[in-house]
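Question (not urgent): is this output format expected?
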Amino acid sequence: MTMPMKPGLDDFFPAPFAFEGTIFEMNRLVLVRLIATALLVVIFGIGASRAKLIPTKGQMILETFILFVRDQIAIETLGEKEGRRFAPTLTVIFLSVFFMNITGVIPGLNIAASSVVAVPLIFAIISYVVFIGAGIKRHGVVGYFRSQLFPSGVPTWLYVLLTPIELLSTFIIRPATLTVRLLSNMLAGHLMLALCFFGTHYLFFEAAGALKAVGVLTLAGGVVFTLFEIFVAGLQAYIFAILTSVYIKLSIEHH
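Got this back:
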């Protein structure tokens, strides 16, 4: 699998190559998602199975990711008790989003598995279920929805205006923004990388005369954008996990 020579919408809607017309239809993006999932499971599965009291360098790297989520996202946002309780869920979200993002810069894959709406939407639904479930478990069904839609300390007449806003903000805008933010960042990143490297190929092999030298600039731009895309892959995973933890906090605490 190599990056198409001409970037476009076909990158995000590749033709199926197996099981066409069935629910198991396979295309390039589905294969990239499966590879990303397999890498995540294998890397951390092997790391967990070989964990030692005195960690190796590889174990220390894996533990760095886990401790970062636990300490800097879960506990920092939710406090010691609730942070440790939700740390495993937030760790799965962070690592899954990161691995789906980082495929955009892995040679041979060359596209983020999260650059099509299905993956960001699934993660947004997971976050949605987690923070609503946390609120219901803490306050009960009636108590949770009352706390979210009818905040205490507000004049009764103001609920006519406030309740629709809270309904839209909490139960519609939150999952929508989680989806769109991740999707738009990874989609834009892929297009920028594809344009840089396609431009480099064109300038080096097809452009005439001194114009070929401009290819050095587009190549340098491609390298810079590759590094930036690695940063964005981690940043978007962090943002997704931290927002999920914030939404959990808003659900389990009084409004």
